[in-house]
Amino acid sequence: MECSWDKYLEVQEELDKLPAEDVLAVFGYDMVDILRDCDDNILDMLLEEIRERETSKRSNTVMTNNVELISITPNYKKVLTGAISQCYQTDKHSDKALEHCIKAGHLSVLEHCYATFKVKCSIQTLLQLTRHRHLSFTVQSSRGTFLDEYLQTGDETIDAMIRESAKAYNGLAIGGEWDFEQVALLAPKAMMYNLYVTGNFRAWFEYLPKRMCERTQKEHRELAEEIQKILAENAPAVFDRNMMSCDICKERSCSFHG
Q1: What tens digit of pLDDT does each residue of 14-30 get?
Q2: pLDDT tens sequence across 135-157
Q3: How many DSSP H helices and E strands does the chain contain?
Q4: How far is CA 46 from CA 4, 8, 138, 150, 174, in A?
């Protein structure tokens, strides 16, 4: 007994919301033949599974950045104040001296301490992140791995187009006829990458105000805000402060002053 046309269209509509790998998980490669041979009761069961997968996928889709602190110089204040004491060959390790150096812009002393983060972000944000040349990166390979998550913006039109682009990538990547290196050329900028990023304290100190600015793309701004929050908790003498300096900012195209 074949299914009704309305039920068939309902299933197709739900399938359009899923990435290719989930469609294959439900139907294999014979989706059209299976749908034609199913009655409405079986299609109802398939619809339930499809919607469960859609809900699960939505909950796993990264809406904001994932940031995890991997390592940070543990005795950072001792290291920094010790470095400062070398300038005038004194044994005094003063927190006040550290604060003076930061406020005066003598930031070279911050280069003696480091922090490493594990980050998950879109290709779009990764391209911006790697512009900060004093940070070091080790990034997930698109030649040897399957990219299985993508950013959603909250804009229905943009997100629908991202899903379509991701389907094209997923379809070829899962099919096995092409290798990941070739298929990666189809990956939309919304696809999520995992990476390690390391910087000395000066690199992070100079990075944060640039990317916490209201002019920054939302995903990247949230990433910078989370990094600043973690650094402020673990190295408060350096990072637990207002990192923004809108009153002295020289960005003339900015409309966020005040």
Answers
A1: 666 555 555 544 444 44
A2: 999 999 988 888 888 998 889 99
A3: 12, 4
A4: 14, 11, 41, 25, 21
Query: Of 180, 203, 200, whose CA–CA distance to 131 is shortest?
Result: 203
Domains defined along the chain, listed by start: 1-61 (no CATH), 63-257 (3.30.1360.170)
Q: How far is CA 85 from CA 56, 93, 101, 108, in A?
A: 55, 6, 11, 13
Reported as a pLDDT band with limits 50, 70 and 90, residue 179 is confident
Closest residue by Cα to residue 117 from 225, 2, 227, 244:
227
Mean pLDDT of the chain: 80
Nearest to 190 by CA among 44, 20, 63, 4: 63
The length of the chain in residues reads: 258
